[in-house]
Design goal:
heterodimer, A: mainly alpha, Sufe protein. Chain: A, two-stranded antiparallel ribbon, B: alpha/beta, Aspartate Aminotransferase, domain 1, Aspartate Aminotransferase, domain 2, 17 strands, 38% helix, globular
Chain lengths: 152, 417
């Protein structure tokens, strides 16, 4: 399977599911069980990932699980669309949160988004081991590299 | 849950685990709002007060450099440092302290031996390791193989996680020069029949090295009875400080081997014409050593010596029995490594769950385990898994903690349902 342009545009994360939705939901989550149940649910919203995308070039190093990331720059709208895949459910959920914040944005806008602030708002890093935090940062840094290339 | 009394099969005096836990201050804390359940002892074990106090006292009362100062503190430090070496010698039943080399850990010890044996190795020679080795007992041999043209050959394991002994015998040949094998597997918990392996290797004049990193937290090896040429272990896995480990080596081999690093302490005389080496063990101890850590390791060994080893082993085996009994309470859970002779370690997978998900959600419940490839990628490949979750127990863990692990796993499964 190869990803079509439509697959990228149809990704609900960052388009249909917005950052406000996630921030609102997080406010009502009391304990770790609810928090993680929600993160796992978000991960289920990641669109299917194309088999031919799972190649070294798209691999995100620095995660404990396997993570792949592909992108499509839409010339018409000037926006950058992303797809992420992982074999771990919680990583999928965290990737979904990253996409909610960064997917479908103009590269220049993406580069000015402070993702650390978002994680702080969500109080995520406090609950995530430094090892896992490194994986998140690796995903974000790969996305920023792509945006920088497209913006150049 | 099964009845508690089922596990107490051995007729030994029970270990007073509650009293022992008071010796380990770190255990009585909360993590993520839950009482800490520390089941990552295979990665690194916690330290008793005796170790903390010994290191504190060393720095407060006797710190100085060793083997150098013409003063009282220097003498005190040297005496504490060399006293620890004697403690290690006694622990291993080595013939002499000349055969006890301080290293940074098991990894450095194996690198030292691989490097030291390089002059003996020629193109086509074979170094026998096992499929279940930690990378630390594979990569140093690969590096020396690259330099010398020797080959590193793994002894296969069975699906249960035991060495294929028939294969071992058929792999031995006149080109085999080294046998390097783990005493206990860090992933599977398998206790390898090292006495028999060493015996077989000896008949053919093969040099033997035992990676004891995962064995010394549970057993006291007797290097003379085993008759191995080298035995390596780390302090931090046996309740001592990080940053120090031990290489035991037979003196005739250590004498023959070139120094590993050059610098202070390891020399007898330096000139620009000719430099000569210090005697054993100092020949292999360049630079100022980890003195406080050596003292701490000595204290850890003394602490272990103060416990009833038989009771300790019985308590550990009760933990493993309880864990095995509870596996069926988690649908889809499968233990990787079901050898007959095991230390209390369970590597496992749960259908539909990634090990990293399991680790994260156990941590939320205050339970510390390890997930990943455990620095044993060839073994992960053999089992066809990207990694496992591993709970590794120590004598200070309780049956109740084992039960908490399984209750937490059931909870995680519900979360993913």
């Amino acid at each position: 399977m190869t990803a079509s342009e439509q697959d990228f545009l149809n990704n609900p994360l960052g388009t249909k599911t917005t950052l406000e939705d996630v921030l609102d939901a997080f406010e009502f989550l009391d304990d770790w069980e609810e928090r993680y149940a929600y993160i796992i649910d978000l991960g289920k919203q990641l669109p299917a990932f194309p088999d031919d995308g799972r190649i070294e070039e798209n691999y995100v190093h620095g995660c404990q699980s396997q993570v792949w990331l592909i992108h499509h720059f839409d010339e018409a709208s000037g926006k950058l669309y992303l797809l992420i895949d992982s074999d771990a459910m919680i990583v999928r959920g965290l990737a979904a949160i990253i996409l909610v914040a960064l997917n479908g944005k103009a590269p220049r806008e993406l580069l000015t988004t402070d993702i650390d602030e978002l994680f702080e708002q969500l109080d995520l890093f406090r609950h995530i081991s430094p090892t896992r935090g490194n994986g998140l940062r690796a995903m974000v840094s790969k996305i920023r590299d792509i945006a920088a290339t497209e913006a150049a | 849950m099964t009845d508690l009394s089922v596990a107490n099969t051995a007729n030994q005096p029970a270990l007073d685990v509650e009293a022992i836990r008071r010796d380990f201050p770190i255990l009585s804390q909360q993590v993520n709002g839950k009482p800490l359940v520390y089941l990552d002892n295979g990665a690194s074990a916690q330290k008793p007060v005796a170790v903390l106090d010994a290191m504190d006292r060393y720095y407060r009362e006797m710190h100085s450099n060793v083997h150098r100062g013409a003063h009282t503190l220097g003498d005190r430090a040297t005496s504490a440092f060399e006293g620890a070496r004697e403690t290690v010698r006694g622990f291993l039943n080595a013939a002499s302290t000349r055969e006890i080399i301080w290293t940074r850990g098991t990894t450095e010890a194996i690198n030292l031996v691989a490097n030291g044996l390089a002059p003996r190795l020629q193109s086509g020679d074979e170094i026998l390791v096992t499929q279940m080795e930690h990378h630390a007992n594979i990569v140093p041999w690969q590096m020396v193989a690259e330099r010398t043209g020797a080959k590193v050959i793994p002894i296969p394991v069975t699906p249960a996680g035991e060495l294929e002994l028939d294969s071992f015998h058929s792999l031995l040949n006149e080109r085999t020069k080294v046998l390097a094998v783990a005493h206990v597997s860090n992933v599977l918990g398998t206790v390898n029949p090292i006495a028999a392996l060493i015996n077989e290797a000896k008949k053919r004049g093969i040099i033997t090295l035992v990676d004891g990193a995962q064995a010394v937290p549970h057993y006291q090896p007797d290097v003379q009875a085993l008759d191995c040429d080298f035995y390596a272990f780390s302090s931090h896995k046996m309740f001592g400080p990080t940053g120090i480990g031990v290489l035991y080596g037979k003196s005739h081999l250590l004498e023959e081997m070139p120094p590993y690093q050059g610098g202070g302490e390891m020399i007898e005389r330096v000139s620009f014409e000719r430099t000569t080496w210090n005697t054993l063990p100092y020949k292999f101890e360049a630079g100022t050593p980890a003195i406080a850590e050596a003292v701490g390791l000595g204290a850890a060994i003394d602490y272990l010596g103060s416990l009833d080893r038989k009771a300790m082993e019985a308590a550990e085996s009760a933990l493993l029995i309880r864990a095995n009994d509870l596996v069926e309470s988690v649908p889809g859970m499968e233990i990787i490594g079901t050898a007959t002779d095991k230390v209390p370690v369970i590597s496992f997978k749960i259908a539909g769950l990634h090990p990293s998900d399991i680790g994260t959600l156990l941590d939320q419940q205050g339970i510390a385990i390890r997930t990943g490839h455990h620095c044993a990628m060839p073994l992960m490949d053999f089992y066809g898994v990207p990694g496992t979750a591993r709970a590794s127990f120590a004598f200070y863990n309780t049956l109740n903690e084992v039960e908490q692990l399984f209750t937490a796993l059931q909870k995680i499964q519900r979360l993913f349902a």
